[in-house]
Amino acid sequence: DAKTTQPPSMDCAEGRAANLPCNHSTISGNEYVYWYRQIHSQGPQYIIHGLKNNETNEMASLIITEDRKSSTLILPHATLRDTAVYYCIVRVVDMRFGAGTRLTVKP
Amino acid sequence: AAGVIQSPRHLIKEKRETATLKCYPIPRHDTVYWYQQGPGQDPQFLISFYEKMQSDKGSIPDRFSAQQFSDYHSELNMSSLELGDSALYFCASSYRGGGQEKLFFGSGTQLSVL
């Protein structure tokens, strides 16, 4: 599976958009980009995934660059409950977590 | 909606003892994953099963074994427990048959080895 690189931590003001970047420069053509988050020792939670097109669901939007070497997860209106560790994973089959981004949403 | 059920929620064992963790996937899910998460660490992939066959193997110690049964539930067996095995163990299930799978995680089993 391709390796991902994420900033270790980010802050965001409540109500503002949170933009979480992920680099995956070695991604191969059939690998999807997945995003999960983990809120304080709870089981990780699926957020969104995509292959090459931008995706949006009720939780977030996923923007994947045209060359697919990076992506951005967007939480459009962050709330305090969005404080969590966010993981970007690229995979074909099994899901392996790397070092994610600890997002802190501040009032 | 039914979720992934893990039992027990908490487990306390002594060094060199054995432990068995159980995972009951969401109905109709065909794949089970096991992860270990130490304090302050990211989840580490241990092993996965697809349709009752081992799918992939991660950093699972030789002292650990796992299997997926005919009813798709899975058990993680841990022997000769060490202090370093103290961690949160997550199970996740998914339906791989559709190609793009989303993992659904249980609440985890907190194992403490004394």
User: How large a portion of the residues of chain A is in β-strands, by DSSP E?
Assistant: over 45%
The whole-number mean of residue pLDDT values of chain A reads 93
Structural class of chain A: mainly beta
Total strand segments of chain B: 11
- What kind of sheet is the major sheet of chain A? 5 strands, mixed
Query: Could you say which structural class the secondary elements and strand pairing of chain B correspond to?
Result: mainly beta
Radius of gyration of chain B: 13 Å
* Helical residues, percent of chain A: under 10%
H/E topology pattern of chain B: EEEEEEEEEEE
Uncertain residue segments of chain B: none
SS summary, helix count of chain B: 0
* Quaternary organization: heterodimer
Biggest interface and residues each? A-B, 20 and 23 residues
What is the helical fraction of chain B, as a range of percent?
A: under 10%
The helix/strand series of chain A, from N terminus to C terminus, equals: EEEEEEEEE
For the biggest sheet of chain B, the summary is:
7 strands, mixed
- What count of helical segments of chain A does DSSP give? 0
Rough outline of chain A: globular
Poorly predicted regions of chain A are none
The end-to-end distance of chain A, rounded to whole angstroms, is: 37 Å
Strands ordered across the widest β-sheet of chain A: 1-9-8-3-4
Brief characterization of the structure:
The complex is a heterodimer of chains A (107) and B (114). Chain A has strands at 9-13, 18-23, 32-38, 45-50, 55-56, 61-64, 70-75, 84-91, 101-106.
